[in-house]
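Researcher: Next sequence.
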Amino acid sequence: MINCRKILELYFEKVSQRTISSSTGHSRNTVSEVVHRAKKLGVESLNDIMTNLWLEAFLFPEKQAIEKGYFPVDWEKVHKELQKKNVTLTLLHFEYATEAREGGKIPYAYRTFAENYGKYAKKYKLTMPILRKPGESMEVDWAGSTLEIIDRSTGEAIPAYVFTATLPYSQFSYVEAFLDMKSANWLIAHIHALEYFGGVPETLVPDNLKTGVTKALRGEPILNEAYRELADYYRTVIVPSRVRKPKDKPSVEGTVGYISRQIIASLRNYHCFHIEDLNQKIFEKLEEINTIDFQKRPGSRKKVFEEEEKSYLQQLPQTRYKLTEWKSAKVQLNYHIQVERMYYSVPYDYVREYVDVRLTTDLIEVYFKEARIASHKRLNGEIGQYSTNIDHMPDNHRLYLEHNPENNRKWAETIGTSMVQFVSHILEINVEKKALNILSTLRNLSTKYSKDELEKSTQILLEISTNPTVSVLKGVLERSKKRKQNQKAEKNSDQTNIDDHGFVRGAKYFGGNKK
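Model: Next structure:
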């Protein structure tokens, strides 16, 4: 039996391998193999649990199988394979058993296989590898520490907040600084991270911050609507971590600490005046972090990502996601809502109702109970501007708004040439406000008289008067109406007289014309 504990005790005390070989009686090759396996499996110190038997079983598991007549298992290979997507312990046992039988060896039963792997994983102090499949998730968070940029005019130090995103399998990370942690920058950070990775994972794992999760309910958290839209666009799913459960996203939690030490701390004394300048420095540091070799596993973050994980990511959409933001607003009595000190109309039926507003860079959409009721081009520039859709107005308001010189001229054209001349005359000799009041009275006449009556009366008015007015036109219309009524009455009267006298036989009937 190899005295593994004695060999490692001496090695950790900085004793040379030649001296260890002489002291324990083992060959230098044996001593070298024990030290090599201990380093490979991460054994850096000894405790009371690590007896000689425990160490020998841990460092040389294949010997245990051979001694009992079973086909040995390469647990390191099993562990590495188990981290791959869709690979299960059942599948690995099936492959192991097939290989053993083909070689004429005895395989472990599945139960023993699973128990031995559990012991191996426990000794190796591993997190359950099934939670770290390539391309399965992207963990995101804001770092607790901040950086600073300097305001040139005042010399004031402005805080810069650091966003981190990590792919747990490869530990490949993205880092960027922003001037605030509002929803817009939260979404922009996600877009930049996905483009940096060149693909989309199956799930996004954020913390329960307000920009991502509206209500952190225990069963099913209520997501920020803009964040949910982003996930839908990139065909991924948001799975927030539980409140005060950092182990739900250990990769990003560990990366945040690592970033704080490697990037934030190293740039703490760096003075810059623009966020772009700061991010340039951050990207340089980030490249170093992603390309440096791991201490306890082969390769680097970038190498493992490119070789083992990138192919599992979903493809990015052809066009970048258009940033959206959701707000809530109350419809005012003037059937407008206020959004960022600009005003947009909605149908007047929704006055005093609360509505949801979806904002993009160039469009505003208004929703009531998930149904879209209005949309407007987004206003920019001077505050207090109005965007009003005439169809959203009550009838009386719409008529008032449409009462302008242009619309009055169009109305006159529907009556006739004389009316067009009369309306133009009114607009020319009066100021606009007074002219519109006169025209309002004129247009009311169309409810009492037909177009033909209006046109004929206006023609008469223009012939008899050098200064035609609406009051004179009314007189012409009334006289014309009375004249028609009188003519109709006379006609009816003549017809009545004929009916009252009955049939007149004449003198011939009575023989009065006889000669």
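Model: The first helix runs from residue 4 to 12. The domain at 137-312 is CATH 3.30.420.10 (Nucleotidyltransferase; domain 5).
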